[in-house]
Amino acid sequence: MESLIELLPKLTSTLRKGSCGKIAVIGGSFEYTGAPYFAAITALKLATIKSYSPSLIVYPGWKAEDVLSKIERAECIVMGSGMGRSEEAGTLAKAVFSYIAEHQMPAVYDGDAIFWACQSDFKFPKSKYVVFTPNRAEFDRMTKRFLGFETLNEENETALHDAVKKLVEQIGASILLKGHADYYMTVAKESGLCDFESGLRRCGGQGDMLAGALGVTLNWAMKSSKSEKSIAAACRASSYVVRTISKRAYEKIGRSADTPDMIQELPGLLRDVEKQ
């Protein structure tokens, strides 16, 4: 909770729309429409603007020039949720990778963005304000592509964390590895285990929620201190948010709890944090 308290902007009467952040979520495809919604609504509920809600601003299309013209106004990019693996998605992803690196923007790469970053015909540009959020399967894809070895069946936590460190050094971006406890390693060589209690129910969309939450906390961190060292606080805060609302939803509903139930827990969590 401490990292979230540290980053959470104070609401005042002088703030205007967008003062707490403008996050662009790039994702979705013919098959996957829910994933980018979960990322965007999480960002919105954490008090940002520009993220299927009347409050969400949604633009369709795959053309890189159209998308890049929109994200010029954003302060942080979240890309990959439900993006798919079509040729159009790949072309767009690679254009955004290059744009982020050129402008040194904070960004979160999840899901299919990780797939596209790992393609052998693409040289991923180093971006020091970028955080990848792989699950174990996606992390295995990354280590095979960039380090040349598999990690999917690695059960030794020390060896796994060492692989995270090597990967961060190789790609020049931070990593928040999702698991029974989340583990982060940043380009500033800060690392830690996020073992906040979570619900036992693991449902689709939780990873998208983490990506959206991290987009917000990363943006807040960059605003408070334009330094790679603040990325660690953003990782801890976003992990705390998603794991805690998972716990609360599970305690209320049990095994039927799903991602929309978790979203309903966000306002109460923020209210509790603000009371601290």
From TrEMBL:
<keyword id="KW-0520">NAD</keyword>
<feature type="domain" description="YjeF C-terminal">
    <location>
        <begin position="1"/>
        <end position="273"/>
    </location>
</feature>
<dbReference type="InterPro" id="IPR000631">
    <property type="entry name" value="CARKD"/>
</dbReference>
<keyword id="KW-0521">NADP</keyword>
<dbReference type="GO" id="GO:0110051">
    <property type="term" value="P:metabolite repair"/>
</dbReference>
<dbReference type="Pfam" id="PF01256">
    <property type="entry name" value="Carb_kinase"/>
</dbReference>
<keyword id="KW-0067">ATP-binding</keyword>
<keyword id="KW-0456">Lyase</keyword>
<dbReference type="GO" id="GO:0005524">
    <property type="term" value="F:ATP binding"/>
</dbReference>
<dbReference type="GO" id="GO:0047453">
    <property type="term" value="F:ATP-dependent NAD(P)H-hydrate dehydratase activity"/>
</dbReference>
<dbReference type="InterPro" id="IPR029056">
    <property type="entry name" value="Ribokinase-like"/>
</dbReference>
<protein>
    <recommendedName>
        <fullName>ATP-dependent NAD(P)H-hydrate dehydratase</fullName>
        <ecNumber>4.2.1.93</ecNumber>
    </recommendedName>
</protein>
<keyword id="KW-0547">Nucleotide-binding</keyword>
